[in-house]
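The freezer alarm interrupted the setup, so I double-checked each line after restarting. Inputs confirmed:
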Amino acid sequence: MTTHADIDRARALVQCLRGAVAETIVGQDEPIDAALVALLCRGHLLLEGAPGLGKTLLVRALAGALGLRFQRVQCTPDLMPADILGTHVLIDDLAGRRFRFSPGPIFAQVLLVDEVNRATPKTQSALLQAMEEGEVTVGRTTIRLDAPFLVLATQNPIEMEGTYPLPEAQIDRFQLKVLVGRPDQASLVEITRRATEENGLPLPRPIASLGDIQAAQAVVRELPIAEPLRRYAARLVLATRPDGAGAPEAVRSYVEVGASPRGASALILAAKARALFAGAPNVRRADLQAAFRPALQHRVLLNFRGEADGVTVSSLLDEVWKETPLL
Amino acid sequence: MLDVGRMEKAVSRRARALRGFRVAGIALAGAALVTLAGACAARGLGARPGAAAFTAAATVCVGASAVGYALGRLREPCVPDLFLSLDLALGTGELLCSLHEVRARRGDDPFRERISQKLESAPLPWRRVMRPRARDLAPWLVALFVLGAAAAVVFALPGGTRATRVEEERQTRAAASDSGPVVRSDGQSTREGDVAVRADSQPGAAPEPLVDTLAEILPAPPSRGLLAGALASEDAGAESLLSRDAGGSVSEFLSQIARRAQADARSTLTLTEEEKEALRALLAEMPRSPLRDSLSAVLESEPGDALKDRLAESQRLLDSAGASEDHPGNAGIASAPPESGERAQGDEPDSIGWAPVKTSPQGRTGTGAGERTPAELGNAPPSGADSAPATDEGGAAAGRTEPSGAAAALGTAGLTPEVLLGSLGREGSVKQFLTKGVPFEPPAAAGPDAMATSYSYVRLQALLESRSVAAQVRDLVREYFEGVTEVGP
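Predicted 3D structure, all chains:
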């Protein structure tokens, strides 16, 4: 049962985490908030951006501030699923020869999957069960992952050669996708100062306990959203489908696949987390708007015509937002 | 803590009332459309709606509104949506609908408490928001407009229903029965009211303000009916209208007196006041002529034999004029005067006739020897040599005037001058210079050869401006007077 103290602590935790990560990462407020949202919603985050923008550093800073077990996987085309999940190794010692399971990096609480689109689909699919169900099956053994389990993946949209775009099923597992933008001049000056003058970038010290995080996650789940707003979110998701009710003409023309029901849940959960960040006791339309694009933009896939015409998913989502009535 | 249940009921009640109000307006608008259709149908059929029809229309409208209101209230509103619309209107950050969402949670739910506290911290003027808006009022406005249109169809529009028009005409005739007779174009004596009705109902009738103005500025104003007829006449010559109509009216008048004298031969013949009035009206519309003088003498003569003599003289003059018109060889005499010094009807001195002679300002189009320019007609006194018109077979004179500077000026002004040459018995030739839209009748004070009209526009301008005369008509009058001034005496 959530109490006022839980709400206050959850909000304070968010503020502290945001401040701690911001001490390491400069000028990336939106990715930081998105990572916190994914954490509190028990979701996963896909960061997309050019190299050198601090994606990996952000994840490392967040993991450091959370004080959770952190693992990192650098994806390459020859990466095998066993390299992520773990494998049975033959042990030959005084006790005899036997197989023993050696867990892979997925057995962590915060997992950084760097350049996830460089891994083969087979390897990428190794993450499917873990991300959705929080457990891993190796051989005939299913192993439960420790909570919280947060996957933060990065991908580089520029170097497409030798990459394997995430399949729909895989990408739908990510609650949010955030485009990591380039820092402005002031941020760049600060980044260079820290990188060149200080003795390395300091990672934040753990400021949260597992209990705090789980309590905050519970608060987010209980935060109320009114029925009309829930219907509104559903209409928004339906409007991203080319055959959905209320879909704008551009969506009908350029979209191959729209958002899934999982997308609707992700939208509402993200809106709840945003409301908590803002200190609101309820979900507002503004919260839905803030969560709309991160929650849905990776779930809308353009068709050939859309790709050929240079249409962007962001512009389509903007149109969906404008065309969908609240009442 | 905010009582969301009570607020929910109040909001729901208000929403239902508003919906009922809107649906009632829509229903009333529909009923009003039906009423309008009925009014149009009644107007088309010529039936005048009675009290029962008005009662039925009112009943339909009221009933439709009541049913609409009931139906509108019947539907239960969606309270969360209502609360959300209130949130949007009040800018509360979706607190109301969220409070409705958590109303079922336990009393100490922290979110519920926080939402309630936030709502209570600021006033919630939700009643002010839930007022009839444009979309609620629009059906009522439409309904009122349509009902007004229906009322206008029945009562206010010009012409009204066929029955209304008949009734109005009947009333007009009844009102005109008190006034004197006027001359109608078909030569029959009738009442002024008839002329007024006819002028109103015919396209191209003279505007009433112009008729009033001309009647006011003329020294001896003719009847309004005559003015209206003369002003409205664009094709037929006004002179013909007057000469024939006056002749017919005089004939009828004299016949009427004669019949009365025969019926009551024993008593002394005298004119009743009504007959005197009718005679005065006839005199006012007649040009100076022996017949007119004779009739004037009739009016002033003593009862008895003197009156009979005057009447006989008038009848004789009238008969001679009629004979000149009916003479087959002199068919043109009725419309063309004889040469100066000649008699159109043999030695009959009292023949009267008018000849409209068109004058083209653009150039010479006629061949008559007696053609005269408007300037000549206006400025030169008539004489035998000057006014000798071209004589056709019947001895009638007709011709076209030579275009002169004055005529050209008239043409420039857009006017079509018409020259009327006439002979008035012993008094010799008389010339009338007319243009379209000008009263035919010459001023009573003018001599027989004087110009019919010549008035200063400056004097008229104040009159025109003081009345609601259309600008187009005003310009026409101004152009006319400008044209007349240039060629006038």
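Quick read of the result. Chain B has three domains: 4-157, 174-332, 337-487.
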